[in-house]
């Protein structure tokens, strides 16, 4: 593999869409549903335990996810993990997370900015992954209830993804962005949006210290998280198509790589953290405007 961030002649694979089978789903149908369910049965409890525990367990989970996603991003741009640049590229997220965990939130963004030494393409990956990781650390340690806030964001993103997957394959219909991701449909997008709205309303209502109107506010922010998650999903699909790869990795059966699974969080988590700055000190971000 070439050790540079932007090969001169990247190979682009067209990935033509398969004919839509009766009933409207994608060409893959439901064949990957079993692998997705089995993966979820392992990932969800483990991640939920780390989120609930907070502290070192949560920090380690976020750092490992950042390093793993950085590895996949670098691989898409032909950066060898065995080269000195590849090793340094994987150390960068550690420095970013260390600054955030040390309370130097501004310093974390300075570390992201300094990653421009790798070139624009690889720098973009450090910024996207760094912003998501730092945002998830901020939401857990700097808002209340921290575990509940992270749960809200992750659950809304997961519900959007699951709702879109099930609705799209059950109903089918017009494609959402056929040139970017032929499998995605408008029906799936709407199904994912409705699932996140319902989930957001429920989660915001049952969390400790819920204020009046929490359900309505949760539903609204659930919709915002769903739109952000779907934007992240489409963005990663466009990146993979441009780089000529089908999946960012193969670490998660039924999903592909970490970027394939958590692409929605790359947009949703930073947006949630940004909105939280407009809420009362330490309040959950869906209480934006209340001070």
Ordered list of secondary-structure elements with their pairings:
Elements: H1 33-53, H2 55-76, H3 84-101, H4 105-114, H5 120-141, H6 146-171, E1 175-177, E2 181-185, H7 186-206, H8 214-243, H9 258-262, H10 265-276
Antiparallel strand pairs: 1-2
Helix pairs in contact: 1-2, 1-6, 2-3, 2-5, 3-4, 3-5, 4-5, 5-6, 5-10, 6-7, 6-8, 7-8, 8-10
The largest beta-sheet arranges its strands as 1-2
Q: Tally the helices: what do you get?
A: 10
What is the H/E string? Answer: HHHHHHEEHHHH
Helix amount: 55-70%
The main β sheet shows up as:
2 strands, antiparallel
Distance between the termini: 54 Å
Structural class: mainly alpha
| Beta-strand residue percentage | under 5%
Q: How many DSSP-defined strands?
A: 2
Form type: globular
Contiguous uncertain segments of 5+ residues:
1-29
Cα-atom Rg, whole angstroms? 19 Å
Catalytic activity: a 1,2-diacyl-sn-glycero-3-phosphate + CTP + H(+) = a CDP-1,2-diacyl-sn-glycerol + diphosphate
Biased composition (Pro residues): 7-22
Keywords: Cell membrane, Lipid biosynthesis, Lipid metabolism, Membrane, Nucleotidyltransferase, Phospholipid biosynthesis, Phospholipid metabolism, Transferase, Transmembrane, Transmembrane helix
Main location: membrane
Characterization of this structure:
Helices cover about 65% and strands about 5% of the residues. It is mainly alpha-helical. Helix 2 packs antiparallel against helix 5 (about 120-140) and helix 7 crosses helix 8. It is globular, with a radius of gyration of 19 Å. Mean pLDDT is about 90; it is low at about 1-30.
């Amino acid at each position: 593999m070439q050790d540079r961030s932007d090969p001169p002649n990247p190979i682009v694979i067209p990935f033509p869409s398969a004919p839509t089978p009766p009933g409207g789903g994608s060409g893959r149908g439901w064949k990957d549903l079993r692998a997705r369910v089995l993966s979820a049965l392992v990932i969800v409890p483990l991640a939920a335990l780390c989120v609930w525990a907070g502290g070192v367990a949560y920090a380690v989970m976020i750092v490992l996810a950042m390093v793993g996603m950085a590895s996949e991003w670098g691989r898409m741009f032909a950066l060898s993990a065995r080269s000195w640049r590849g090793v340094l590229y994987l150390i960068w997220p550690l420095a970013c997370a260390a600054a955030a965990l040390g309370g130097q939130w501004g310093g974390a963004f300075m570390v992201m900015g300094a990653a421009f030494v790798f070139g624009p393409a690889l720098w973009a990956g450090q910024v996207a992954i760094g912003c998501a990781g730092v945002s998830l650390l901020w939401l857990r340690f700097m808002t209340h209830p921290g575990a509940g806030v992270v749960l809200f964001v992750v659950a809304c993103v997961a519900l959007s993804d699951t709702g879109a997957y099930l609705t799209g394959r059950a109903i089918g219909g017009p494609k959402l962005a056929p040139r970017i991701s032929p499998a995605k449909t408008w029906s799936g997008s709407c199904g994912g949006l409705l699932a996140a709205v319902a989930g957001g309303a429920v989660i915001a209502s049952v969390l400790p210290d819920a204020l009046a109107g929490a359900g309505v506010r949760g539903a609204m922010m659930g919709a915002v998280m769903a739109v952000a998650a779907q934007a992240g999903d489409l963005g990663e699909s466009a990146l993979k198509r441009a780089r000529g790869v089908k999946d960012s990795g193969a670490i998660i059966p039924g999903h592909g790589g970490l970027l394939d699974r958590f692409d929605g969080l790359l947009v949703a988590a930073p947006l949630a953290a940004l909105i939280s700055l407009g809420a009362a000190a330490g309040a959950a971000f869906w209480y934006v405007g209340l001070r």
